[in-house]
Specification:
Helices cover 23% and strands 16% of the residues. It has 77 residues and is of the alpha+beta class. The termini are far apart.
Length: 77
């Protein structure tokens, strides 16, 4: 059976790519490249699915990611 999961990808201060699957509890992986992180997250998804009885992806609807810009007035105080 084939299933789709959304992965949120960020880059940390050391340049590593971090991927997290919101639909699976504590499901995240990292890699030096996006390709390495994606390979690792697929392995982690398999492990998470083996260890979780119920997957909450039916309750989570991925909408998207939005960048929000604010004025940092504290830096000028």
């Amino acid at each position: 059976m084939q299933r789709d999961f959304y992965v949120i990808i960020e880059r940390d201060e050391d340049g590593f790519f971090i991927g997290e699957v919101p639909a699976l509890k504590a499901c995240y992986a990292q890699g030096k490249t996006i390709d390495e992180m994606l390979k690792n997250i697929k392995e982690v998804i398999d492990l998470c699915l083996e260890n979780q009885q119920e997957v909450s992806d039916n309750n989570i609807e991925f909408i998207g990611v939005q960048k929000v810009t604010i004025n940092d007035n504290l830096a000028h105080a």
